[in-house]
Specification:
The strands form three sheets. The chain has a seven-stranded mixed sheet, sandwiched between helices. The protein is globular. It has two domains: 140 residues, Alpha-Beta Complex (Aspartate Aminotransferase, domain 1); 238 residues, Aspartate Aminotransferase, domain 2, CATH 3.40.640.10. By secondary structure, it is α/β, with parallel strands linked by helices. The mean pLDDT is 95. Strand 9 and strand 10 form a beta hairpin.
Length: 391
């Protein structure tokens, strides 16, 4: 008996977590703190909304099909900005625009893998990456991380087999928040090139990296595109989550294969979203810098307030971008603890079990906080609620 592809993976974790809210009321003096999803809930800034409205009214092409690999102007803008910010050379024909970063990952995997192939993912992993591999018939090979939540290339080397097609990293990391050192990424690039596999680096949260300057030097290698596939999302930078605009930066040969996937799935990326992303790149540099500072302030609030939890036996395993990754002190699985937190603390977050294979230890003691939509005062309240929890 055969089984459909979708039956090979688990239910969407964020949707599952939302069902924990059913039938639960939250008193006025203890409103729900939703730290479950890494997506801004505010709309784009007013100037961008005005620009988008003008585009809808006055640009007839926004309502039509466009190029499969995206608007030439947006591809060129990404190439130019990447060339400047990373200190290497990226050309417009090495950039494709996708319907969100999830689709960028799906397209990359479709261009790399056949059924039965393998992709190495550090664990904890971003669950949608695991879900797509499952539905593609591709085996996820878990790569353990150290106490700093950073994977090591030498550990990955022992996992490479003749079926390995890629190593996929996320930095700044989802779910752990850690920023992978430049040396770590360089070591993985060397490893991937040596073994003839791709290195996928998902930099969805690059705009909120705490470091100044380029986070790595991979693009300075004149032959970067024989190994590197970089993924990006405009959703977090410009609050365009509902418009689904992402990017994949890779070799022209890789993009020719990716084009087949994109043409079959969406035909073209969202036309309004692409124009909004381009407008944002051209006009919102200072605004985005302010948004980065706000996220960094929230990151500081996590570390400043964490002694409240540390006194109760909690540990902060990682923090950065939109995320704090915690180890709880309770003698139950995080899968059971997370629904209890909704009821007893008015907190919705995701358990570490959603970011780990069932046969890999660790997730049961871990929790992810996504702080994109809670400010410093909310973070203090959040930690106070968690500290007062007694099971």
């Amino acid at each position: 008996m055969t089984h459909p592809r979708t039956s090979q993976t688990f239910a969407p974790p964020v949707m599952e977590a939302r069902r924990w809210l059913d039938g639960v009321t939250h008193p006025a003096d203890r409103p729900l703190l939703n730290v479950s999803q890494a997506a801004p809930v505010d709309p784009p800034p007013p100037a961008m909304c005005d620009a988008m409205a003008d585009i809808i009214r006055n640009d007839p092409a926004v309502h039509l099909y466009g190029p499969v690999l995206g608007m030439p102007a947006l591809r060129a803008a990404v190439a130019q900005q990447w060339t400047v910010s990373y200190g290497g050379t990226v050309t417009a024909d090495q950039v494709a625009i996708t319907s969100g970063c999830n689709q960028a990952f799906a397209a990359a995997i479709a261009s790399l893998c056949a059924e039965g192939d393998e992709v190495i993912l550090p664990v904890p992993y971003y669950f949608n990456h695991r879900m797509w591999l499952d539905m593609s018939g591709v085996h996820t090979v878990p790569l353990g991380v150290g106490p700093d939540m950073v994977p090591r290339a030498e550990d990955a080397a022992a996992l490479i087999t003749p079926r390995t097609r890629a190593i996929a990293l996320v930095s700044p990391n989802n779910p752990c928040g850690v920023e992978y050192p430049a040396g770590t990424l360089h070591a993985f690039a060397d490893l991937a090139r040596t073994h003839g596999v791709a290195l996928i680096v998902d930099e969805t949260y690059r705009d909120f990296d705490s470091r100044s300057g380029a986070p790595h030097d991979l693009f300075t290698d004149p032959h970067w595109d024989d190994t590197l596939i970089q993924l990006y999302s405009f959703s977090k930078a410009y609050r365009l989550t509902g418009h689904r605009v992402g990017a994949v930066i890779a070799s022209t040969a890789r993009l020719a294969e990716i084009e087949k996937f994109l043409d079959t799935v969406t035909i073209c990326p969202n036309q309004l979203g692409q124009r909004a992303a381009l407008w944002g790149m051209q006009n919102l540099g200072d605004w985005l810098a302010d948004q980065r500072q706000e996220i960094l302030a929230r990151r500081a609030a996590i570390t400043d307030n964490f002694p409240t939890l540390a006194a109760q036996g909690w540990k902060l395993l990682g923090c950065g971008a939109y995320f704090a990754y915690l180890q709880h002190p309770f003698g139950i699985s995080s899968a059971d603890l997370a629904p209890i937190l909704v009821q007893q603390a008015g907190v919705l977050l995701l358990p570490g079990t959603m970011f780990m294979p069932d046969d890999v230890a660790g997730g049961a003691s871990q929790l992810r906080i996504a702080f994109a939509n809670v400010d410093a005062s909310d973070i203090a309240v959040l930690f106070d609620r968690l500290a007062k929890l007694h099971l």
